Amino acid sequence: AFAKEGAKVIATDINESKLQELQKYPGIQIQVLDVTKKEQIENLAKEIERIDVLCNIAGFVHHGTILECEEQDWDFTMNLNVRSMYLMIKTFLPKMLKQKSGNIINMSSVASSIKGVVNRCVYSTSKAAVIGLTKSVAADFIEQGIRCNCICPGTVDTPSLQERIQAQPNPEQALKDFLARQKTGRMATAEEVAHLFVYLASDESAYMTGNELIIDGGWSL
């Protein structure tokens, strides 16, 4: 979506094979990166002279209540869903401050402080933390030309979701359950969420900062 608008994109992921699929698109440079590793992030930052928009999207969905969430589940989720954003922002924000402009967009979720969702204990906790992080960064650096917002999707039809559905004892029923909670009768598409990222990165949203933008088809109503 960003490349279509003419942006120079550096796409990062821990999965190199998935990144290779993006190489066919003009304007996209790929870079293998583990966003939980401070040294890798710092090395990448040394290679980038200017950054106008930072999108923090990496995340993991743990299924279960607090009683089904072991310490390692808690630590893994918080490390990937929250600490990685802390590391990315702390590393790249100084470049933005030097430029006196920058735009940070974090991926949160409706399953957070916005809505309590069954079997999403640590996931929801982590995404609520993302909202808090977003507002803190926005408040601290608003006078230095920095904007920071987060996007809160509902259920999005992604390969990750399909994998979780197929992992259930009854995938067909699991799909029906996901659709049953969608008041629009369908899930969001990844493209719809991507368009919101582009909007927040554009000048059209120049007066927006510290916001959590909900895109959930009315699920949180």
From TrEMBL:
Catalytic activity: (R)-3-hydroxybutanoate + NAD(+) = acetoacetate + NADH + H(+)
Residues forming coiled coils: none
EC number per UniProt: 1.1.1.104, 1.1.1.30
GO cellular component annotations of the record: cytoplasm
GO MF, any single term: 3-hydroxybutyrate dehydrogenase activity
A Gene Ontology BP annotation from the UniProt entry: siderophore biosynthetic process
Keywords (A to Z) from UniProt: Cytoplasm, Lipid metabolism, NAD, Oxidoreductase
Keyword Lipid metabolism: yes
InterPro entries in alphabetical order: NAD(P)-bd_dom_sf (IPR036291), Sc_DH/Rdtase_CS (IPR020904), SDR_DHRS6-like (IPR051122), SDR_fam (IPR002347)
Pfam families, per database record: adh_short_C2
Pathway involvement of the protein, from the record: Amino-acid metabolism; Siderophore biosynthesis
Location(s) in or outside the cell: Cytoplasm
The keyword NAD belongs to this UniProt entry's keyword annotation: yes
Family, as annotated: Belongs to the short-chain dehydrogenases/reductases (SDR) family.
Record text on subunit structure and interactions: Homotetramer.
Protein name as annotated: Dehydrogenase/reductase SDR family member 6
Gene source species: Bucco capensis
Gene encoding the protein: Bdh2
